[in-house]
Write a structure and sequence with these properties.
The complex is a heterodimer of chains A (about 110) and B (about 120). By secondary structure, chain A is mainly beta. Chain A contains no helices and eleven strands. The chains are: A mainly beta (about 110), B mainly beta (about 120).
Chain lengths: ~110, ~120
Amino acid sequence: KAGVTQTPRYLIKTRGQQVTLSCSPISGHRSVSWYQQTPGQGLQFLFEYFSETQRNKGNFPGRFSGRQFSNSRSEMNVSTLELGDSALYLCASSSDNTYEQYFGPGTRLTVT
Amino acid sequence: DQQVKQNSPSLSVQEGRISILNCDYTNSMFDYFLWYKKYPAEGPTFLISISSIKDKNEDGRFTVFLNKSAKHLSLHIVPSQPGDSAVYFCAASAKNSGGSNYKLTFGKGTLLTVNP
């Protein structure tokens, strides 16, 4: 099976802009989670989608949003970018009712 | 408040010896624990997991031990190999009010270096 894929791998944006990141889960996985990794905070949970519904949400401002499509692909959007949003954004997928999540390579976002 | 703590930022061991990576947690609601390995410029790779109803789980060279009373878990790698050099993350999961528990809370990681 192909692994989790994320596009783009690298992105440079300017403060105030918005950005959309994409994630394709492992075939057959319906749960997709998003995480932000920064040097100071480590890996922090953003949200989780299952069958097009947000099932879990972390403690991030409303500028961070996501959605999931009927084919389980997911997108994450960040509006009004701030310098502190510079991070590695990781997507992970899992099969139904399992704890183990499988991660993609991440999207490195740099906000200038 | 950091619910999952990996107090050693780095660990260095000799090839062939045992590597022991430690993790402490504060949330008694956590019921499942996982270890991930991460190389630079890649996403974390799932290694091994353990349910709170067990105290040990083995998979080849990797063994995870769970001490619920101490809220402590450890990952043992025997024998250590240079290819094991990476950042290791401990993660934990707890059921939310809706009964699902698919959010992982991560520690900040330990950089393991295995010297030839």
